[in-house]
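Human: Here is a favour to ask of a fellow structure person. Comparing notes only helps if you start from a blank page. I am asking you to supply a protein in sequence and structure-token form. Write it directly below this note and I will take it from there.

Assistant:
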Amino acid sequence: MLKGLTEMKDEMEQALLEDLGRDKFVTELCEIGMLQGSAKWDLKNVDWMAADRPEQTELIFQPGQAITHYEPLGVCGIFGTWNYPYTVCFKPLIQCITSGNCAILKPSEMAPASSAVMKKFVDKYLDNDAFQVVEGAVEVAVALNKLKVDLFCFTGSTQVGKIVAQQAAKNMVPCIMELGGKCPAVINHDANMDATVAKICFGRFNNSGQTCIAPDYVLCHYKVINEFVEKLQKKALAMYGNSKEGSPEMGKMINEFHAKRVQDLIKTAGGQVAFGGNVNVEAKYCEPTVIMEPEKTADIMTQEIFGPILPVYPI
């Protein structure tokens, strides 16, 4: 695994530049470097993680001894996503290998270049009797979901997660799921504003806002809200520029459908656009955008944003 991450790094980075318009350094920082670190950590710690662990034995069973003995589950089905395709597919795969399991990976068809690279990676560097990549659209995911594997690992929307879990339940297959949500960032009046702005700017706008753990909205103390917005605008301009075609440091929306969806979220948000707000659907680019006090019942607050938009409210 580590050998492949080193030898195919350039090819993997180029594929994500094609799929998401994302700078190679950002891909190395947010995906490949993280995977290398995870694989190295598992290699270093696999012996103690897999070792038998003695447990406290109840008096009635003594002088017997109780231990926890770890065994592989079997075959794991891993559903990948398009926003961080290598991390979401290969991080669970590393843990499958560490724990002695086999795996079937289904990358997202919405990132076809990355999907093809992952199949090439697995075919070349891993035991294909134990690890396989299946490519394709929805019908392939549905077929995989119907298999009587031993575990499903799914990352994606709550809506699709429910479908995966319902089908898995028919075969009594347990699921590990990381689904969407609404994550606020809270800024108090005594916050270190420069550090706060830098973190929120990268966390919200990196990968064109297509990050499941990004802050979805900000609750900011009224005394410092103007300072926060002004500094955030300057930081976003410094990091990502103001080209109407976007920048590789920020990346682009995955496709025109999602660019149009973000455009609609801005149009129907209510409130006031503090900066940004322009969307170039054909270029799949949305400016870093801050909206002051959008309607709480608007789609931007009731749905997953998954774009470079940040609602801000005073508290």
